[in-house]
Specification:
- A hairpin with a 2-residue loop joins strand 8 and strand 9.
- This protein has one domain.
- By secondary structure, the protein is an alpha+beta fold.
- The N and C termini lie far apart (33 Å).
- Strands 2, 3, 4, 5, 6, 7, 8 and 9 form an eight-stranded antiparallel beta sheet that branches.
- The longest helix is centred in the first third of the chain and has 18 residues.
Length: 198
């Protein structure tokens, strides 16, 4: 066992810190793309199995209209439930509330999950109308604070910038088994922002 995973997590957290401290969302997005490319191409903990032939990740064009602010609404205290994986296993998450946001005249809601294991962490996966075609069928992740993926919040207002939506590691190497977005976190809209399939 070595400390490469610790280094990888630290670099991801540093990358999101840079994103949060950059005033221009388009510049922050470019920083994120470049930082992810470097980690995926060169780091020993990259989720890409064949780094020698890796040429990059595909993204939708940056779309400022997909940078939204959601309102977190705490939920009733509920027990943890197992979230299915892309492969073997499950992960226990506890629903802690919802985040609601408004887009194109419609209100939307996603369930916010808390990792029930040691240390915890906020997890916000989602599915949308691009899944299975332009993006992975099991959904994408928007927030995963265990891995440092945190776009920021102020009080109960949470930054939901879908330009930073990304695929789970199993998309890049099927030896990974990753939590999938639960069926309840399905948006009835087409989110052409963030990471896409090549």
């Amino acid at each position: 066992m070595d400390l490469t995973l610790l280094d990888y997590r630290r670099r991801v957290a540093d990358l999101y810190r840079q994103v949060r401290s950059t005033a221009d969302p388009a510049v922050a997005h470019r920083t994120w793309i470049d930082g992810r490319h470097e980690l995926f191409a060169d780091h020993p903990q990259s989720p890409v199995a064949d780094r020698a032939s890796f040429t990059g990740i595909d993204y939708f064009d940056h779309d400022p209209s997909w940078r939204l602010v959601g309102r977190f609404v705490p939920g009733d205290d509920r027990p943890a439930a197992d979230v299915a994986h892309s492969g073997d296993g499950t992960t226990p998450f506890r629903p802690i509330g919802t985040v609601t946001f408004h887009r194109d005249g419609t209100d939307h809601e996603l369930e916010v999950l808390w990792l029930a294991g040691y240390g915890g962490g906020v997890f916000l996966p989602f599915r949308d109308a691009t899944n299975g075609d332009e993006t992975y069928g099991g959904g994408r992740y928007l927030l995963d604070t265990v891995k440092g993926a945190d776009l920021g919040h102020q009080g109960d207002d949470v930054v939901l910038d879908f330009n930073f939506a990304y695929h789970p590691s199993c998309v890049h190497d099927d030896s990974w088994s990753c939590p999938l977005a639960p069926p309840g976190n399905h948006l009835d809209v087409t989110v052409r922002a963030g990471e896409r399939l090549g």
